[in-house]
Amino acid sequence: METTADEVRATFIVTSQAKAAYADWENNPKRIAHDVVSTMRDHTTKTIYDCTLDTFEWIKENHTHPLGDIKKKDIAHIDLAGDWEPAFAFVHLFHLLMEDLGRPPLWSEFDTFAYATDTGLKMFGTDRLDLEEKIFEQELERLTAEHPTWKGLEHKARLLAKGSLDWRVGLAYYGFMREMFTAVALRERGLDVRVHPLADANFRADGWIDRKILSVFVVNPKYKVEDQQHAEAFQRGRKVAVEKLFPGSLFEFVELTMEGAHEYGKFHLPAEASLDEVAELLRPDS
User: Fold this and answer.
1) Cα–Cα distance list, 213 to 39, 147, 199, 250 (Å)
2) pTM check: above 0.85
3) What are the φ/ψ torsions at residue 157 (nearest 5 degrees)?
């Protein structure tokens, strides 16, 4: 089984808003120059359809936490990290690596790919290292002004620079794994849920089946329930809610919402009851 980019375009380019969003992506000079468009325009998703829930059990057993000991309060002020949108979307890179590995990647495997391979450095790592240097200089200047007598300011600034970017990418990684787990769990409930990086990055669809689009949200207590679309803005960079791309279309929108994580450094995945509820909403006859 596979999902091609052509299928994604045929499924989602059904409104003027969706057409414009895709054209903006395909004609973006930065993405063209970085080979994003040429790499992702014809991408085919296969691997996830062969995965099972046992795949994720193995991943959890071999997982290393990407966020380390950094605390969000220590890096929340670093806008260069929070606003960072590399040419290759994070979900692009996770999908590409997943197809190479034959399963969703461990964080350690992504880290190696991004910073220790020629391909990863070209797509992502070099830009990240350049940004890390900018943040380091910014944080060193700030710390020097605020704490001129402290020792080890350069070390502290370096930790904050690296940690803020690890946080940005790490949260995206956790979000990707949550979406892949959800797709597999729903498929094991008999639903032909599809995923694809273009559907996610371009059309805000975490998954879909026929004309039903699935969105997976973690509730942020800072937002009201009706604003849950914004709950993962720092993590996912959503600019437009999925509904706004498809006004007047035949799509139905199904949301799987979750409370925020309570265990630091572990995958935060949907509960069985939530998956059962969403599965019923996604069934073709519902």
Assistant:
1) 25, 50, 10, 11
2) yes
3) -65, -40
The CA distance from 28 to 24, in Å, is: 6
- For 209-213, the CB contacts below 8 A with 24+ separation are 209/282, 209/284, 210/284, 211/250, 211/251, 211/252, 212/251, 212/252, 212/253, 212/254, 212/281, 212/282, 213/242, 213/246, 213/251, 213/252, 213/253, 213/254
pLDDT in tens, 260-272: 666 666 788 999 9
3-4/252-258 β-pairing: unpaired
| 3-class secondary structure, 218 | strand
Q: How many CB atoms within 10 Å of residue 164? A: 25
CA dist., res. 195 & res. 9, Å (int): 13
Contact 172, 135 (CB under 8 A): no
